[in-house]
Amino acid sequence: MAGHECYHCKQWVEAGETHDCWTTTEAALTRGLSDDLQEAWDRLRETAAEFGEQRIYASHNSIMFSRKSCYFFVRPKKSFLEVVIFLGRTVKSSRIKRVMAASKSKIAHVVQIRHRDEVEPPLSDWLLEAYDRSDVLGVRKKLRPKRAASGRKKKALARR
After folding, report:
1. Is the pTM of this model over 0.70?
2. Residue 64 pairs with which residues in a beta bridge?
């Protein structure tokens, strides 16, 4: 039969079949998880939901947790949940696999979770810190208006 493999999600799409892998759900992203990973996901989502008002939504291959801006997201993998937490500082811990600058004020910390018992302090503390600081870290600073050029600068600009 004619068809093609979607280069985003690697799913086979039959000719004439509608396919939109960009529109996904939490259920679709967590459907194939092992029992341990499913329990870990449930506990992680429940822990984050207790922090307060926020938006939890699926986007392509991740599940995003955000207030005004995303404070962490989860990428379900076959053997672990990859959790990326945005903090305003660098945390050093054996639990953190990678640290990278996400913006001028946000530092992304990558943690792998394989079991529900891993969703406890210090991980839950980092998530709460990210939630609490997300409004401050996610706000773009307004640019200051340019000051008028001084007399010396005006003369130099006029000569050019």
Report:
1. yes
2. 57, 73
Cβ-based neighbours of 122, under 8 Å, separated by 6 or more: 93, 95
Please give the helix or strand (H or E) that residue 11 lies within, else none. Answer: none
Domain architecture of the chain: domains with CATH: 26-139 (3.30.1460)
Of how many residues is the chain composed? 160
SS3 14: strand
Contact between residue 126 and residue 91 where contact means Cβ atoms under 8 Å apart: yes
Distance CA(65)–CA(55), nearest Å, equals 6
Please tell me the predicted confidence (pLDDT) of residue 155.
61
**Cβ-contact 96, 110 below 8 angstroms:** yes
Segment 98-126 shows an average pLDDT of: 96
Annotate 28-95 with three-state secondary structure. HHHCCCCHHHHHHHHHHHHHHHCCCCCEEEEECCEEEEECCCEEEEEEECCCCEEEEEEECCCCCCCC
